[in-house]
Write a structure and sequence with these properties.
Blueprint: E1 16-26, E2 32-34, H1 39-53, E3 65-69, E4 81-85, E5 90-94, H2 97-110, E6 128-137, E7 143-149, H3 157-169, E8 174-178, E9 180-181, E10 184-185, H4 194-197, E11 201-202, E12 220-221, H5 226-238, E13 242-249, H6 254-259, H7 288-304, E14 309-313, H8 320-324, H9 326-334, H10 343-357, E15 361-365, E16 377-380, H11 384-392, E17 397-399, H12 402-405, H13 428-433, E18 448-455, H14 463-470, H15 473-483, H16 488-504
Helix pairs in contact: 1-2, 3-5, 7-10
This protein binds acetamide.
Acetamide binds at residues 315-316, 365, 381.
Amino acid sequence: MPPHHPEEALLPRPTRYTPRSGHFTLDPATTVRTTPGAEGAADLLRTLLTPSTGLFLAPSRTGTITLAVDAGLHGLGEEGYALTISQHSVMLRAADPTGLLRGVQTLRQLLPAEALGPVARAVRRDRWEVPCAEITDIPHHPWRGLMIDVARHFHDAATLRRHVDLMALHKLNVLHLHLTDDQGWRMPVASYPRLTTVGAHRAQSMTGPDGTSGFDGRPHGGAYTRTELADLVAYAAQRGVRVVPEVGMPGHVRAALAAYPHLGNRPEHTLGVWTRWGVCETVLGVHDEVLDFLRAVLDEVMEVFPSPYIHLGGDECPTTEWEQSPRARARAAAEGLPSPAALHGWLLGRAGAHLLEHGRRPVGWAEDGALLPPGFTVMSWRDPAHAAAAVRHGHDVVLTHHRTCYLDYAQDDLPGGPAAQPGPVVDLRTVHGGDPEPQTPADGGGRILGTQAQIWTEFAPRAADIDRLAYPRLCALADRAWSGPTSWADFTSRLHAHLPRLDALGVRRHQPAAPRTTSATPARTAPLA
Ligand code: ACM
């Protein structure tokens, strides 16, 4: 059934929507007027609509669509916008150009779903109607992210650009790229070329979870060029999406150590890039060459990625090698640390300080009990209690909890589904519900910046796998992150109207199994399709 009001079809839900009578019609005579600073939003409008609608939306001083930056609208913040659709004009205004990019996506969603499709499939019309309305829209959270792990399986730049487009449709604004791990290093670093000539390739992969499976006997690999990464950053920026790179340390570095064994704790050992899944015992050494390496890598990362945030990993770092290494123990003693295990915080602190000296902010995964060094933004993934503790200690926090935000977990518990990360079922409703947000202390602790979905790719080797894991669950996360909590009924009714847009865009989304008719057990995923 079509929704009664167009706002019931917007995803995420706008802050305020007042319907007005009538329609604005886009037709071959429609032109676009911009004020200084709004040109990028006009370009995006054309990039999104011209191929599918055939309308040129040419620039003109008397355009019926006006895109305007007005610094006086500071109440809208950096990403908010005001959109007035009347029968004879459309006025989109924002305090910052980024707000206009968000408003363009709303205007796009108010068109029929075919307006989102590629030219070959578009139903050619001369007139495209948009319902009249007044909309004011301001995001609930400033950080609305998606992490894609391109280390466990390499996914090419075209796939990433496509996901940037889909993120922008949902007003998500951070693409976190997990660029390095035990199983592959994907970003070239000029002063350490073997990171990609050696570290980007592994001999084979496990076919299932560690301990339960064999190997596929086939090589896997891939790396981006520096130009591809720079182009991705620019492409994302045009859509109001920031790319936050992650270079993990001190654990999850086996690919780097396969390339440069002298950076490890046992340089005499020749290691291959890891072919297993799980947590690898091999970690970075803590000698001066490692600090030189980290500075050189981070300098290049900062050149390619203008993001104010750079992620340094920090998760799942076994300390056995440091406990066994005389050199690491000597370093711990020389630095006055209570134990070799404290080298974890020490090394992260040194790398983080290098970023802070260059005006960037380090990000790290929260681990059990151990607080990240001061100045780190924390991604709380294991337990909401870690988010609360980090905020109390003055850290800014992004909520990334595995039980609600890890989209590599199965979407239902029906037999015969695709291989998934072992763990809880994370169905659409679980993602929609999210986690309770910790109270931020009144006396100046840290802030909750927002939330982010994670797609780890051990079991997602193909581009279609990422589509299936992300959609429609990412719609639920985007809705919560932009709109704040919404009711399940409200969300599912809007999602129902939104799915034709995903279909027009060719998203290979998860298709929920047919509801069971003979069993009292409800389907894990609401039957929406
Ligand atoms: C993580 O899932 N190891 C952050």
